[in-house]
Amino acid sequence: MAETRFQKTPFHYLQYLALKAFCVLFALLPYRFSVWAARTLMRGTTVFFPNRFRRMEYDIARAFPEKSAQEVHQIAVNSWSNMGTILAEFIQLTHMSREQFKKHCRIVGLEKIQQAQGTTGGIIHIGHFTNWEAFGLAASVYGMDKAVLAQRVDNPYIDDETNRLRNIFGGRTFYSNHEDQPFFACMRWLKRKRLLGILIDQNAGSSEVWIPFMGRTAAFSPITALLAIRMQVPVFPVQVRREQDGKLVCYVLDPLTPPAEYTPATTRAFTKKLAEFYEACLREDPASWLWAHNRWKREAEGEKYLQGHPEERVK
Predict the structure, then answer these.
(1) Distance of alpha carbon 171 from alpha carbon 166, whole angstroms
(2) How far is it, in rounded angstroms, from Cα 179 to Cα 176?
(3) Dihedral of CA 12/179/124/115: which sign?
(4) E strands, the chain, where?
(5) In 3D, which of 79, 106, 109, 108 has the Cα closest to residue 93?
(6) Pseudo-torsion of CA 284, 109, 249, 77, nearest 10°?
């Protein structure tokens, strides 16, 4: 990857200053008011991104053909508004003490990953639902020695600030798109019996693991399955829910055991199993997912590939 993509520019710095001012303002507001304000402001920005919003509605309609146009539109609006909620919650939570944080965000099933830390290690399997960043913060607040595998954003100032806040209570970040051999860095981390968080419910920019997702072919990164199989560590699915009072609850579910043997077929099958977890969450609460991702960006490419390699089609 060309280093020029992540070079600092004056425009990047202006973007960073604007975001920093926004964060300072929202950190000073009362928690509930800041969340309401950010959600309301974000809802109004749909007019500035009409093409993206229409694509969201198209993807939702494809995923839920039984829903009316009005229902599809409301899911898209709520999903878009949730991005504002995530930002406000993230700003507020990163400016709290650990004691204050625990009043707003808790983990159910914490003992499952506590048992894995220092014994087997494990991978935290979480998707872009509700507020995934809150769980990353909560894991550190509640004593977990974790790292996350993330994608670096193009603006290096904003990326540095996001990474600082993401690890403000502890932890570290590996970059999948800007780090030498991130796979092996993750392997070394897991070898030390630690916890690694990975999101794989976004379009893989370069992948030949084509998995059906919500009835359509999607490009999935196989890294979670590869690491779990190679290192023989459990994978802990996590769901984050927002209660009526605005508090966040993170549920750690029972671990998934990877196949004992590594082959391309077992990797694809385990990736499919992990994708099915996201699919179940999405069907249960579609508005909680980040539909703004162009999840099926490579659908046509995937179908063309599978036509030439039918043995790799996972059902």
Answers:
(1) 8
(2) 6
(3) negative
(4) 105-108, 122-125, 146-150, 172-175, 195-198, 209-213, 216-220, 235-242, 248-252
(5) 106
(6) -30
Q: How far apart are CA 140 and CA 153, in angstroms?
A: 23
- 158-189 tens-digit pLDDT: 999 999 999 999 999 998 765 567 889 999 99
pTM reported for the whole predicted model = 0.92
pLDDT at 205: 78
Cα-based torsion angle of the residue sequence 201, 96, 241, 72 in order, rounded to the nearest 10 degrees:
-70
d(C-alpha 199, C-alpha 127), whole Å: 5
**CA dist., res. 277 & res. 238, Å (int):** 10
Question: Residue 179 CA to chain centroid, in angstroms?
Answer: 19
Helix (H, G, I), strand (E, B) or coil at 102: helix
pLDDT of residue 309 exceeding 50, the answer is yes
Written as six digits, the tokens of 138 are: 């909560």
Question: Which tens digit of pLDDT belongs to each residue from 87-146?
Answer: 999 999 999 999 999 999 999 999 999 999 999 999 999 999 999 999 999 999 999 999
Q: Are 203 and 297 in contact (CB under 8 A)?
A: yes
Task: Report the helix count and the strand count for the chain, using DSSP H and E.
Answer: 12, 9
Going by the DSSP 8-state scheme, the letter that residue 194 receives in this structure is -
Tell me the sheet residues that pair with 211.
Answer: 218
Rounded Cα gap, residues 44 and 77, in angstroms: 10
